[in-house]
Each structure stands twice: as C-alpha cells, then as structure tokens.
Amino acid sequence: MSDADSPFRAPRPGRPDTGDSRTWADDAKAWADTRDAHRLIAEALARLVAADPTIPPHPYLSRHLAHHAARGEVLDDAHVPLAVLPWESSANVRTLLRQSDAVSAVRRQEWLEAWARIEPFIGGAGPDSRLTSLHLAHHAATRPRTPLDTSAARVSGSRVTPLWSDWTARDNVLAVSETRLESLTRTTTTDGRSLLVSGDDHGTIRMWEPHGVPAMAPLHTYGGAVQHLLPLPGDLLLSAGTDGSVRVWHLTRGQLLAEPVHRPGTWVSALTLFAAKDAPEVVLVAHSDGRLGALDPVTFRPVDTPLPSLDPAPALLSGVGLGGAEGMALAVAQGRRVRVWDPRRPDGYTHEHQHEGAVRALVDLAAPGRYALCDDSGYIGFRDASTGRETPVAPAPPAGPVVALTALTVAGRTAVASGGSDHTLRVWDARTGAAIGGPLEGHTAPPVALTTLPGTSQDTSRELPAPAGQELLVPAGQELLVSAGADHTLRRWKPGGGGGGAGRAVRRPVTTAALSGPGSTAGAPLIAVADESGTALWDTGTGRPVALPAGHAPVTAFTSARVRGEPLLVTAHRDAGIQLWSLERGAHTAPARLAGLLGHSLPVRSMAAFPYEGRTLLVTGGEDGTVRLWDLDRVCALACREDHLLSVRDVAVLDTARGPRIASAGTDGTVRLWDPVTLRPAGAPLHCEQRVVNAVAAVPVDEPDGAELVASGGEDGTIRLWDPGTGRPVGRRLDIGDGPVAALAFFRTATGRPCLAATGPGGTIHLWDTDTGSHLLRIVTGSPLGALDALDARQPGGPHPEHPVLLAAGVAGVCVFGIRMDGR
C-alpha cells in the first residue's frame, strides 16, 4: 500500500479538515520539506498503536510506520512503539536504521536496535515468539551483567522474564536468504552503483545494495545451483553451475541474453577471465570432466586459442597477472595437484606441487606473478607463479577445510581473506603470511563465498550504511569484506577490525555454561560460565561474579551436586581432569577446591550428578569415547565403559520402571542405556538414525509408573523420543528447522506442563509440549547457541518461584530467563 492509499488522514497544514479526499501524499506537497510531512505522519500513526503489544495493529501501521519515521528523521522508540514491532512486516527496520543519519544523544532507539538484531532471523515466527525474542534481545543489549530488576523485567505479552545476561552479538548481517547461498561477487553498474550478486542452490541470482536491500527482481536460471558468477562490463553477468550451462545476463534489465554453453551431465567447475601475452581476453570455462573451453567476452562465441591440457576431472582455474604487458599465467588445481601454465613457454606448465588435501580455492593477487590457494587440510599459502616458491600463513589456522578465498587491500597491504569450516573468517598479509587481526566470528555455518566492497574514510552512514552509532569507517583504499554463508546469511566485516563496527567488543565465545542451585539468601540461581579467558560464577540476584581460582585448564563442562548436604560445583577441564568445588561459603566467596578425579584420556564433554541409595554418583562422557561412573562421597571411580565409537557427546539420568538408568549419546549415532550400579548395558543400543547424536535428555511422562522417555537431538536437526524399555520411538520426529540440534533441556511449567527446549547453531530456542508434540514457542537470539540448561520452578522465597528458569549460551555469551508458558 502506498502513502496515497493510507486510510489515515490528518488536516492539511493551516486549514481545518474538510473531509475531502486529499491524503497525506497530497498534503506533503504543501510543505517546503517533505521530511516534516513524514514526521507528522509518523506521529499520527504512532498514536494509533495500542499500548498492548498483543493487540494486532492495522496492517498499514505494521507495514509503513517505520518507513515514515525514517523519512521524517524520527526513527526512534517514541515514533515506532514497542507494541508495533512484533507485528512489523516490512522486514526493513534494520536497513532503515543503517540508512538513517546519526542519532542525537537524546533520541532513544533501544527497542528498534534490539529488533534490528533479531529481525533477519525471525522468519515466520508468530507474534508471541516475536515479542518474546524482542524482550530478551532488548534486555541483553541494555542491561548486561546487572542484577534482576522485576520492575523493568515485565513486558505485557512476553513469555520470558529476563533475569541476567552477558550477551554481545555481532550485528553485521546484511541479508538473509531463504535458500543456501553458493556464490557471491561484486559488480559496478554503468551508472556507478556497487551491487552484490549472489547465486543459490535453487538456481536463483539475486542483486543486493551494499546495505542489504534487494536491488531488483531475482533472476531464475531454472537449472541447478549457481556456483560461479563472473561480472563483465556493460551490466553483464555470466553464471554457471551444476547443470553444466553458462548463461549471459543483463543485470539492470533483468534479461537472459544467451546460453553459449550447455553440457548436460556435467557441471561447470571454473569460470574465469584470462589474457595471454599479446592475445585478447577470453572467458575460460572448465567442466567436471576436465574439458576446457574459451569464449569471446563480447560475442560469447567459442574462441580457438591455445589452452592447457587437463586431466579428466574437475578443475579450479585462476589467471595470475604477470605484470605490465606480460599477460597472465594460469593456475590449475585438480584434486591435490596444482600446476601453473604459462603460454609464453613452449613446454607449457612451469611447475607443479601436491597438497595434503584437495584444493578448494585459487585467487590472483595484486602483486605480479603471485597467487593464493587453500585446501581441505586447512592449508593456506601464497606462491610465485614462475618459481613455485611458497609462503605459508603463520600461525596456521585451525585444522579443517578452508573453503573460500578472496583478495583485498587492508591498510595499503595486499591481503587475502579465508573462510573455514570452523565458520570463521581470517585475514592474512599476502607478502609475509602473517595474520591481520583476529578471527571474524558470527556465521553459524561455513562461509562459502567471499567478495569485497569499496571503503571510504568519510562517514558511511549513507554510502555504506550501518546501525546507528556503528558506522563502518575505514581508510580510503581499504575494502570491506562480505561473506556468504551456508547459514543463508550475507555478512559484512571490517578486515583487521572485527565485525559489525565500533560497538562494544564481542566477548569470547562461551564454551560451556550451567545453572546451579540458589547461591544467595534471595534464592536466585548461580550461573557457571566458562570461556577461553577463564571461569566465573554469577549470582543472578546481585549481579556479582566470583572467579574460580586460576591454575586449571579451560573448563569443558559443568554440573552441580549435593554431597552429604554440601553444595558442590563439578568442573571438567581440557586436560581431561575433573575438579570438585565447595559452594558452602556462599555466592560471594571463591569456591574451595575439594578434590580431583582422573581417568579420562581426553576432555569430558558432559556430566550429570544424581543421588543413588544414599550416595551421590557422577556420570561423565568424554571425547575418548568412554562413559565413566564416579562416587562423589568417597571421591573414587566406580566403572568405565568403552562401547561408544569415537566421542560421547552428552549424558543424562532418567527414571524408568526398572529404576534409574544412565543415557549416553555418541558420535556413532546411538544412545546407550546403562545400569548405574554395574554400568553394564541396560538393553540394546538405540540406533537413532539422526547421524551424530549431539544431545540427550530425560523426559518424564504423566503415567502411574513414573517412567521417563529418552529424547535424542541429532545432527540432522531432529529430536526423537524413545521408550527405554522397548527401544522403540514414541511419537513423531520434531524438527527444529535451522540446523543440527546442539542441546536439549527438559522442564515443567508452573502448572506442570512438560516442556522440552532445544537449540542449535541457528541461534533459536524451540519449546515443545512433550505430551502433545505441539510447538509452543520460538525464542530467536540471532547468534549461535551451544548450551541449554533448565531449573524447574524455584522453592518459595525466590524472585520468581512459580516459573522455571532457562539458560542459553553460545558464541555471543549467556542469557538466563524465567519462562511463563501458562497465561500471561
């Protein structure tokens, strides 16, 4: 609906309302500055928003209010009230904030900025989920590490009561695609506009403005995945991919001009420009069967030109500029072998070398005769095209495939950015191989394609918009890095200076976190949090931390226990050791170390303590593939099992008709049940058919025998319930829909309703009713999560005794909140 279609009209300036048909669009012409008209429209529309966010606003409000406020330069919380944001349907608040002028100190945008952080990930969530997610995001952004304030915690309609948070997420998402992105490039149109162009696995090509807004209608190939994009002068674009075809597009017209190559049964493995010495430039096209051809970049007809011979296998290609009028050499990678072909030499290939893993990317550098490459072993290096001399990066990146490269300029230096299977980007000096800045974290899946955008030393709030107060200011000549991830996001980075700009520094990713029992007289729960810098206990009632004594390796898992009435914290460490700490002295005194447990040869991934026949037992699962049982009263080992193949990912304890059982989940795709006395198998393994099983939880059922089910969370993104007595699945699979299940937690609501919480790297917490299998709520955080923990309703005397408490932790930090699923 346009402004002229608005059902809301106001009096014309200087005249009473006569009831005529003139609208605000007409009246705006009477103003010297249309910003005044849009400001008045925003003020009038804001007065029509109900105070209760559970009441749906008129569709015009949810679609256009933020746009009017932005054009009237009043994009703030007063003119776009909280109550309209959960219904906001234009999906552009994030972009409007980036396009707005710098905000004055008196203007408040807390709710708008909180919404902008989660807006790209909200998707089709309902109003309950949207408001709840917004409430939690606002608390995390505005009240970090502060004690609970019940007067500020309540928001009508929200299902959570935030208790405590330490959360600083990246805010550099440009766009979110409904499909998996496969390729990315940048082009400059004939009228001087810089555009990003992406290709996806559905054969669709999209154009984006530098701030993430779609630039024009998508182009559909109606073929396979678009894995290669090559911009050409005159608004032309070549695309190629898994259907074996090369297509020519006119971007600004949105037209398919030609399909000069069509080879069904193959796929295009490389698409690049190449110019030999004293020869015209050609487009090289390599197919999966090793066939290499050349096209004229103007007529797109085949060109008869000297080309190297390739093995009958997919090839990666990159032209390597030799400087001046010397033309190019051609770097060719097929599997683990890399060769450089120089058309000036009669013997063709100048040299070759082998890699430990298959080469994944080649890229030309600005320095003559230099190129960069990466492979599946994690190698990144720079080579001379004439001599083959190597400069590897140092320090070496973490082990794992490096899947994408792009060349860029950082502070006047030629550099290369790499994207790895660990989901991070890194930047390297192309001359020395040294790292520039730290890793760039934020993607929840590997970045599959990289490109750059031009930077400027001027204020970029309009040229390259960013959230208010976080403009990306970079020196002239330095470029911004843009990545397309397998998590469906486009993200923008400042190389050597972190992600979303100059906001608060992003905290170190939390490696593990857990809730403990009340740590103060108010009954507020304690939070144990570990990251690479150390471990601390936080009291949600006071907001005060206590650090664990130093001298131990980083923590990999927590659990709490009570031994002979004394509250304990149990920590597992990267050196495979386990430590016991007394919490008896209270929340504000450093815990006293009681004892240590040794037995695992690799770090422990999960632990659970439970009472049994007057003792307190501890079960641990480790990366060494073992499940071990310990007696905490006597501080000794009881038993060890090595039935799992590879790592044990999670452990839990459940009640069954035959008594307590230990459940362990493993990389081998099974859940195994154990007798807590002998640690012998209690039945056959459960083959979950979920690939790796990352999480396991006990799920009580409302039956007279009090038996519990086992919930398994898999790498395939599903949750399954199992009857431990029969070994059979119960009910249907539950699908979180945004990646592998990373963690599970069970709790009951104030009225006893059984709920299962699940999360994954997508950063969304899903809540299900386990009795009915119905999906209750999505809580969107916008940042990868790896840990969940739950405490059922607190004992009387606590801040919210009637509600369970849930903890979520991950890359951006930790947040803790009460859940109110029963009533408002």
| Average of per-residue pLDDT values | 86
Are there runs of 5+ residues with pLDDT below 50, and where? 1-22, 102-106, 457-473, 498-506, 794-801
Figure out the total of helices: 7
Helix vs. strand class = mainly beta
Order of strands in the sheet with the most strands? 1-54-53-52
For this structure, the quaternary state is: single chain
The radius of gyration is 29 Å
Q: End-to-end span in angstroms? A: 34 Å
How many strands?
54
Main sheet makeup: 4 strands, antiparallel
Write the layout of secondary structure elements.
Layout: H1 24-27, H2 34-46, H3 59-71, H4 93-99, H5 110-122, H6 127-142, H7 150-153, E1 160-167, E2 173-176, E3 181-188, E4 194-200, E5 204-208, E6 219-220, E7 226-232, E8 236-241, E9 245-250, E10 255-262, E11 268-274, E12 282-287, E13 292-295, E14 316-321, E15 328-334, E16 337-341, E17 349-354, E18 359-364, E19 370-375, E20 380-384, E21 390-392, E22 402-410, E23 413-420, E24 425-429, E25 447-454, E26 479-485, E27 489-493, E28 510-518, E29 525-531, E30 534-539, E31 545-547, E32 555-563, E33 566-573, E34 578-582, E35 592-597, E36 604-612, E37 615-622, E38 627-631, E39 636-641, E40 648-656, E41 659-666, E42 670-674, E43 686-687, E44 693-700, E45 708-714, E46 718-723, E47 728-735, E48 743-748, E49 754-759, E50 764-769, E51 774-780, E52 785-791, E53 805-810, E54 813-819
Antiparallel strand pairs: 1-54, 2-27, 3-4, 4-5, 5-6, 7-8, 8-9, 9-10, 11-12, 12-13, 14-15, 15-16, 16-17, 18-19, 19-20, 20-21, 22-23, 23-24, 25-26, 26-27, 28-29, 29-30, 30-31, 32-33, 33-34, 34-35, 36-37, 37-38, 38-39, 40-41, 41-42, 42-43, 44-45, 45-46, 46-47, 48-49, 49-50, 50-51, 52-53, 53-54
